[in-house]
Amino acid sequence: MTDRKPFVAGNWKMNKTFAEARELVAAMLKPLSGIAGVEKVLCPPFTSIPVVASMLVGADVGLGAQNMHWEEKGAFTGELSPSMVKEFCAYIIIGHSERRAYFGETDEQVNKKLHAAMKIGLVPIVCVGETLDEYESGRTGEVVSRQIKLGFAGVDFASAQRIVIAYEPVWAIGTGKASSGENANEAVKQAIRRTLSATFNEAIAQSIRVLYGGSVTGSNAPEFFSQPEIDGALVGGASLKPDEFVAIVKAAA
Ligand code: PEP
Fold first, then answer.
1. Residue of the nearest CA to atom 3 in ligand 1?
2. pLDDT category, 3, cuts 50, 70, 90?
3. pLDDT-based confidence at residue 2 (cuts at 50, 70, 90)
4. Among residues 39, 98, 130, 168, which one is catalytic?
5. In a domain, 180, yes or no
């Protein structure tokens, strides 16, 4: 038995204007606040972060950003720094597969962002996961283990325990084709906790929360949350639907 607290984060991706964000949060804030025992986080686009932050004041729901640069300031047009994110948020998604695939984010950049997040005091949600090709050729373990080793390089033992990892098989993200609970559990056990144990130690490997992400819905969430290695979910599409997101959080409680 471990005492890892369940964790559910909603990644809105590039969805919702300011007004739509306000509407979405208004629709789910009350039911979400009533669910105890789960760490809940909303990750809207940057433009909606201030309004969502104001709506979450005093609520038991955290706020996260979907990306940031690792540098504190300077000539990085279009980027936001860790302290800019920290002004509003307590969490930061790092290395989402869409950033890796469409914006060329590398394990080395993930590592720089992770160090920057730890330094400023943000809780990082680090995403790892294999593509369909890698999955079908039996390379899940190798790929995910490499992402963890390179992504976590130089992280000290105390900081490591604050990190949340999201195991997100790329083939399951936004496709409606979720992994099975058993398959995801095995990947988390073999590829993630084993690598964490070798990199840090077994106690740290057991203390880090690992989420599953990839087409999670209110109906399949219980299958994932009943797995011993899975501590919650990073939710994309379903986090834009108040009833679905609330159902997922309830399933984690
Ligand atoms: C995600 O955006 O991280 C994700 C898992 O998306 P979806 O739930 O839509 O598959």
1. 236
2. confident
3. low
4. 168
5. yes
